[in-house]
Amino acid sequence: MNTQSTRVFSNIVLIGFMGVGKSSCGRLLAQELGFQFLDTDQRIRNSMNSTIPEIFAKYGEATFRAQERELVLQTIPTLTNTVISTGGGMGATAEYLDIMRQNSLLVHLCLPPKDIYERIKKNKNRPLLQTPDPLESICELLKKRLPIYHTADVEITTLNRSIPQIVFQIILQFQRYKPLTSANDSTSYPESH
Ligand code: S3P
């Protein structure tokens, strides 16, 4: 009997830092694959009927993180054929990646800190970067988060690439992994990195 644990997935989870393009790429990726699309920030905004800054200000970050936790524990395990764009903190939680890895290909979208800063500097929707020195905040957060982001199955830079180009890269990787992990396929794929 094969005792190695195997992964069977039909979802794609996009993880990575704020501003790397997870939501924009996720939306087009879902469209191209004919998949459902779940944007975790959007789901939380809708369920609390508030913007992210309002949630942080009115209820505190812990309430927002509890909503993320519920999505990872209760909702994501039930999904199939879905592209999931996560908030930057959700994909930086190793425990969550272990859960999502069970039914999803994990794709890390990445950008250098300076480019993240250029993209987010005028945006007021990210409470963690409303600091006197946002570039420094980006670097500090990345230092903690990158080792976890790096455990994704696939890493793709979004630097100097259009959204369709990034989506194309993700689809290539998904097709490469997918046949090896399909529930209908007799070939099993050992869980590894
Ligand atoms: C956060 C990232 C944000 C949002 C919240 C917290 C983070 O999402 O979930 O502001 O901790 O990195 P994006 O990555 O979509 O900006």
Secondary structure topology:
Elements: E1 11-15, H1 22-33, E2 36-39, H2 40-48, H3 52-59, H4 61-75, E3 82-85, H5 94-100, E4 104-110, H6 113-120, H7 134-149, E5 154-157, H8 163-181
Parallel strand pairs: 1-3, 1-4, 2-3, 4-5
Keywords:
alpha/beta; 49% helix; binds shikimate-3-phosphate
Structure description:
This protein is an alpha/beta fold and 193 residues long. 49% of the residues lie in helices and 12% in strands. A five-stranded parallel sheet has the order 2-3-1-4-5. α1 (22-33) packs across α8 and α6 (113-120) crosses α7. It binds shikimate-3-phosphate. Shikimate-3-phosphate binds at residues 18, 22-23, 41, 52, 87-89, 126-128.
Gross morphology is globular
The largest sheet, given as strand count, sense and whether it forms a barrel, is: 5 strands, parallel
User: In sequence order, what are the helices and strands, one letter per element?
Assistant: EHEHHHEHEHHEH
The percent range for helix content is: 40-55%
Determine the mean pLDDT.
92
Poorly predicted ranges = 184-190
- The portion of residues forming beta strands comes to 5-15%
Q: How many alpha or pi helices? A: 8
Strand order of the largest sheet: 2-3-1-4-5
The value of Rg in angstroms is: 17 Å
What structural category do the secondary elements indicate? alpha/beta
Q: What's the β-strand tally?
A: 5
Task: Give a brief rundown of this model.
The protein has helices at 22-33, 40-48, 52-59, 61-75, 94-100, 113-120, 134-149, 163-181, and strands at 11-15, 36-39, 82-85, 104-110, 154-157. With 193 residues, the chain is of the alpha/beta class.
